[in-house]
Specification:
Blueprint (H helix, E strand, L loop, with lengths): L1 H11 L18 H23 L9 H13 L7 E7 L7 H15 L14 E5 L6 H4 L7 H13 L10 E8 L6 E4 L4 E6 L3 H17 L20 E10 L5 E4 L2 H15 L5 E10 L8 E3 L4 E5 L25 E9 L7 E4 L10 E4 L3 E5 L15 E4 L2 H18 L7 E4 L2 E5 L8 H32 L7 H23 L2 H19 L2 H4 L6 H47 L1
Parallel strand pairs: 1-2, 1-3, 3-5, 4-17, 6-8, 6-11, 7-15, 10-12, 11-14
Antiparallel strand pairs: 4-5, 9-10, 13-14, 16-17
Length: 584
Amino acid sequence: MGEITELLIAANQPPPDFDPETMRKTKPGLKRLILTVSVLFSFILGVPLIYKSVEIYRAPLPFLEIDSLSAEIDSNPLLFPCRFLAILVGFDSESSIASLEPSILHQMTELTRQTPQCGTCSPNHSVSVVLDPDDHPLLGAVDFDGDDEAVDEALEAVFRGGWGSGDRGEVYTVVVVNRGGEEARAVVGKYRNAWIVGRVSEEEAVAKAAEVFVKVFVNGGKEEGLIHGEFMPVGADGTLVLSFNLLNADPRDWVYDWDFQTVDTTLLAPIIEAMKPVANISVESQVLYHVPKSSLSYWDDKWDSYVFSTKDLPFFVNSNEWHLDTSIAAGGRSKMLHFVVYIPSAKECPLLLQLPDGQISTTNSFISPMWGGVIVLNPHTCRKDSESNHPSRHTIMHEDLQKVFEVFMGQFRQLFSFKSDNLYVGVSGMYNLLPSEKGFTVWELDVLSRMHTCFNLHSCATTLGSLSRLVQSLPRMIIKDEIGKQVKYSLEAAKLAQTNASLGIYDASAVSSRQARSLAEDAFFHPSIMSVSYYSFEHCFAVYSPFFLPVSMHVILAALREWRRYKKENKKYLVWKAKMKDAS
């Protein structure tokens, strides 16, 4: 028994050459290493979760399509196909269509700018000339000596029947009737027709027809200095609010009211319907009291009235007292136009507007671009009843109210850059412009549609381009699916507007361009974009690193330290094992 114990003791004792610093008899355990690596891997697996928790959702946007649209609109101005038809009656049979068509085209080219403006007709004009209209008995039945309204309706019935109609662009027609002895008279109808009757030579007919085509039907008869397209009073969402206000300066003298409902139904409804392709118009009205003007007036013995000059116009509107922006649309992206009827007090009645030439304004009104217009309406008698303690109450008579709204219509036309009178004076003569009960004639609505299509597409491309650059510059900006859909639909509407424009469908192109601009504005000003402060990824790392970096460094260092320890101890074990193998 003692011998066995001695053998066990001898076996457990290390050999004489065993070095504890470089050898060990047992294999090192893996428990500490596994535990340390498990903690490290838990941190590593948590990194994607942390990244996912701070990830910003970004719906994909068609950046290439946006850049393509912007480049196309900037490089190629939007031009519309227009077709022109000149009908010459009573000229020599020696005249030939082959010579007249190039002559009219040459005159039109001379009147057209070398660089075509966006929203106008293409310089590649399509001009047709008809010299012998006997084949069309309907035109021979038109009595050009009759009333202008009747002539215009008769011509519209003739051309609406299909004469000169085409697949691309509207057809604008000028009929020249040569009659000896009488001076030529030119009239532009409320549709797409014009006629010139009287003593006209062939050269004059060519010049007048070309001027009507370019200056009236294409350019809208506008003059230099009128409001340009980028200042059109239509909101970014394609809506326009007309606010009509009746202002009683001092109700202690008299109180005036109006029957606005009748005016809205009879006078404004046709205008709103005609303007639908250009803008979605709504109307509101109110009557205000105790609303004096800001400017001063003085008594003028010559006119036997109180007078205020054009120099006082910037101070006439009293923004502190005139609470006109009462609509819910006043705070949005809709545009408001204010039309004010100002009833002066007895202290400055009658009140007249004196023009710079010293004369009195016939309409006693003025406009403010992008704001609206003001009419000063003096009572029929400026004497108040001093014996009565109560002010006299009046309702503006229908005849006076109709005259007021005729002035408002002229102001409305001026705000859309058209002339308020019915006369165009050109190089080749004067032209009478027939007014329309809708406020704008058909050819004027064509001009508005073309101009607004161009402006809306430019605005759409600019807004989408700004949104694209903004999104790409801020990688952590939230882009919701709704924004992506709005951008997509905006691009589709813009392409549809371009297609309709190339086909000459003016109304449809205006509607599509308005939708494109509105959707682009909705995407750019989406609440999810405006309400969040965006920061870079470096900022996010700087915010979260104080929480995770110290612990992460300790875990990583502990894992490295444990790995190095395991390798060292395992090496000792392998050295001892090799030693024992050699000894056996």
